[in-house]
Amino acid sequence: MRTILCVLALFIGFSFAASQDLFETGTIDINDGEINDFYLERNTDNNQYYLLVLLRKGGLKVFNAKRELVFQRVGVRSFVYWGDTYLHNNILYFFETQELYGLNFDDFKTAKAPSQRLPHDLYTHYRAYKDKTSELLVAENDTIVDVYQFPDLDSIARLKRQTGEYSYYVDGLVVYNARRRDLFAFNLNEKKMQWKIDAGERKAKFMGISLGVFPGWWMRPYWNPDDNLVYARTSSGDLYKIKPKSGEVVLKKEQFRGDANNAGLLTRMYFKDMNGDGKNEIVSPSVDENIYCIDPKDFTVKWVYEAENENQMPLAFYDITGDGIPEVFSVCDYDLMLSILDGSSGKLIMDFELKKEHKKFNQTYVVVADIDGNGYLDIITQSSRQKIRFLELKTPKLPTSGSKRP
Question: Which residues fall within 8 angstroms of residue 224, CB to CB, at 6 or more apart?
Answer without folding.
Answer: 231, 241, 271, 280, 296
